[in-house]
Specification:
With 233 residues, the protein is α+β, with helices and mostly antiparallel strands. The protein contains five helices and 13 strands. The strands form three sheets. Strands 2-6-5-8-4-9 form a six-stranded antiparallel barrel. The longest helix has 21 residues, at 68-88. The termini are close together.
Length: 233
């Protein structure tokens, strides 16, 4: 029996970290490391391209006041300032987490503050995100976060330090499964028709999780790692 294999299964294991599926009901952080694992040689060519939901930057809120108690209070004051400022700004949200992002509020102040590498210094890691609109550019979206950092009042010797790793987030990736499967079906049937009326398709791997890679400054390519065989009916 003649078969033509034109897809590769299990490519998604390269792009989805352990535990990421737990966040599929919420918001998933598309990290820089996940971008680097994209390999065009093993990723199916059928992808659903869409804008990410948010642009996100992890910042470190740091304080080096010598007295530990005062240092902690200054950090808390600045974090509260961030929370209040974000509540008034429809273009800014705060979160915590690496792979799965959850909303940050005052009940988490003690849990996010820890010791920094420098002596007599404490810090907290917070995610600042902004929704990506249809007309947004990367510069416009990132400027909203930069302006928020600059305008937030800092208490005592506290600073808000932004990094250079701008990431994207995606809310409920599994909601796009049906759209991706429809694209796969259309491509599969078109490929089979090229071999004549006597050929059909067999598709495997559609039970695998939706995964993705970053295809532009604000764009993601979503796919399901699948295996496609064209064979006589």
């Amino acid at each position: 029996m003649r078969k033509f294999i034109i897809g590769l299964a299990f490519a998604g294991l390269l792009a989805m970290p352990a535990g990421a599926q737990d966040g599929y009901a919420g918001e998933v952080n598309v990290t820089g490391s996940r971008i680097n694992t994209f390999d065009a040689a093993v990723t199916p060519h059928v992808v659903l391209r869409r804008r990410a939901d948010n642009l996100i930057l992890e910042v470190t809120v740091i304080c080096d006041t010598r007295d530990p108690a005062q240092r902690r209070e200054e950090l808390k004051a600045t974090l509260r300032n961030m929370i209040r400022a974000a509540a008034k700004d429809p273009g800014i949200e705060l979160g915590v987490g690496d792979k799965v992002i959850v909303a940050f509020d005052e009940t988490m102040l003690d849990s996010v503050i820890g010791s920094a590498a420098k002596v007599d210094t404490s810090s907290a890691r917070i995610q600042i995100k902004t929704p990506i609109g249809a007309d947004d550019t990367f510069d416009r979206a990132s400027a909203r976060i930069a302006a928020f950092i600059k305008s937030t009042p800092k208490d005592g010797r506290t600073e808000i330090l932004g990094g250079n790793q701008w990431n994207l987030t995606l809310v409920k990736p599994e909601q796009y499964r049906g759209d991706i499967i429809r694209l796969i079906a259309k491509d599969a049937l078109g490929s089979a028709s090229a071999f004549g009326e006597g050929y059909g398709v067999s598709v495997g791997g559609l039970n695998l999780p939706v995964t993705w890679y970053r295809s532009g400054p604000l764009e993601l390519a979503l796919y399901i790692p699948y295996r496609l065989e064209i064979q006589p009916k």
